[in-house]
Amino acid sequence: MNDVAELKEFLLLHAKVQGMKPAEYRVMADSIRNDDEGDPASWAARWSTRGAEMEDAGELLEACRAYNMARFPFPDGPTREKAAEQCVAVFDRWRAEKNEIQPLTVDCLGGQVRCWTYGLDPANPRPLVLVMGGQVSIKEQWAPLLPLIGELGFAGIAAEMPGVGQNTVPYTRDSWQMLSSILDAVSQTADTSQTYAACMSFSGHLALNCAARDDRIRGIVAASAPIRQFFTDPVWQSRIPKITVDSLEHLTGQPLAALADWALDDGTLADVKVPVHYMVSKRDEIVPAAEGAVLAHLAPDVHLMSHDDVHGSPNRLLETRLWVVLSLLRMHGSQPGRRALLTTLLTVRRLAGKR
């Protein structure tokens, strides 16, 4: 059973990322009384009811978002399990109506990675952007962004971390190999020699590990990714929210204290030769803000962006989105006109945020 106060606090970021208005989220959150399986006033039940209402009204993407909230942080009982299934099913109906986003299944590392893709074309292989969230976010949360990635001239893949959503690959210190397997699977339909990983939170740790070994990854955009202190500092670990600890232990099958050897060592970071654009949230309560400095000290080509905000910088989402797009275009070296415009917009937003 989760702490309802933590659920309400930390889900605001995910609600905003999905396009849900804070007022709408607050109304729902205020109606939730507990996290007890089978209680109509519980977290999973209330969000599931909201999802069903949206589905009945034909608002499929909104229904998908509500079901995603219901299954958070991971399915731990019948109501969340059903919500997770409905989330994927409703998203599948939504994307099928548009006939743009397509499914992909990759067998690797003793499991299956199920992805959503956009713009894969053997006749015109485009540079690839691989999008992934953290240890509690599913591919249906990110896949609606794939057509926007396509407008920038890239093919796109939205995937999940090992053990998250429909991904049945075990989450171990070697799970970074999953990214290479995804690139292998689309090597004939995308220009995987120009792959850019937009990997938020814990998936950034996977991307850095992979980039040190797979030269098809030509750049990384990461935010609040654990590097070293998260895995090795028991004092910091004692302050991490219970939801985060529970989800990691659920995925890895190990206590957080047993993951010390997951920390990225000096040699691995030195081998990340490609540009890394890394966002730091100065008041991050999950991943130490100091991880950015460790990365910048040891990896050769690091560009830091910082916000005076909590994990994921939920109060700076527009700036973060501008920064992600600008970072991708800078790493690829394309569209100078659009880069100049984005640079201006980002500067204006950051100046406005300091007033």
Radius of gyration: 19 Å
Mind telling me the CATH class of the largest domain? Alpha Beta
Give the % helix: 40-55%
Give a short account of the largest sheet: 8 strands, mixed
How many runs of DSSP E, i.e. beta strands? Answer: 8
CATH superfamily of the largest domain: Alpha/Beta hydrolase fold, catalytic domain
Q: Enumerate the strands of the largest sheet in spatial order, edge to edge or round the barrel.
A: 1-2-4-3-5-6-7-8
> Alpha-carbon distance between the termini?
41 Å
Shape: globular
Describe the structure.
- This protein is 46% helix and 16% strand.
- The protein is an alpha/beta fold and 355 residues long.
- It folds into 2 domains: 4-95; 101-353, Rossmann fold (3-Layer(aba) Sandwich), CATH 3.40.50.1820.
- Strands 1-2-4-3-5-6-7-8 form an 8-stranded mixed sheet, sandwiched between helices.
- Helix 3 (43-56) runs parallel beside helix 5 (78-98) and helix 4 (60-71) runs antiparallel to helix 5.
- The model has no long low-confidence stretch (mean pLDDT 94).
Give me the secondary-structure topology.
Blueprint: H1 4-17, H2 22-30, H3 43-56, H4 60-71, H5 78-98, E1 102-108, E2 111-118, E3 126-132, H6 139-142, H7 146-151, E4 155-159, H8 177-185, E5 190-200, H9 202-211, E6 217-223, H10 229-232, H11 234-237, H12 242-252, H13 266-270, E7 276-281, H14 291-298, E8 302-307, H15 317-332, H16 336-353
Parallel strand pairs: 3-4, 3-5, 5-6, 6-7, 7-8
Antiparallel strand pairs: 1-2, 2-4
Task: For the structure shown, list the relevant keywords.
eight-stranded mixed sheet, single chain, 2 domains, 8 strands, 355 residues, alpha/beta, Rossmann fold, 16 helices
